[in-house]
Write a structure and sequence with these properties.
Blueprint lengths: L1 H24 L3 H27 L3 H36 L1
Length: about 100
């Protein structure tokens, strides 16, 4: 059981570091936002799977489900609002 948790967490860290590297390398802000979205979804579900392997559906597991669920459903709203704000600033500066 601990091996599965370790593997899930290692894969989550790998994906998070890959997304961070992509954010650093990408040339435009919108490209960077794309990889920020990836960093908030795939690794979060891997961490959730690791928590559920360790804790099961106890209170800790249920709180992890709630946290990842909220992040999964609310993060696109934040990402869209950020992209719209950037586009508005770019339009104002470009005019």
């Amino acid at each position: 059981m601990n091996l599965a948790v370790d593997i899930l967490l290692a894969v989550a860290v790998f994906f998070e570091l890959a997304c961070v590297a992509a954010v650093v390398v990408m040339p435009t802000t919108f490209d960077r936002l794309h990889y920020v979205g990836g960093a908030a979804t795939v690794p979060a579900f891997l961490v959730l799977a690791a928590v559920l392997c360790r804790e099961g559906f106890s209170s800790g597991g249920l709180m992890a489900i709630a946290a990842v669920g909220l992040m999964f459903f609310l993060f696109p709203v934040l990402l869209t609002a950020t992209a719209r704000a950037i586009a508005r600033i770019d339009r104002r500066d470009g005019s």
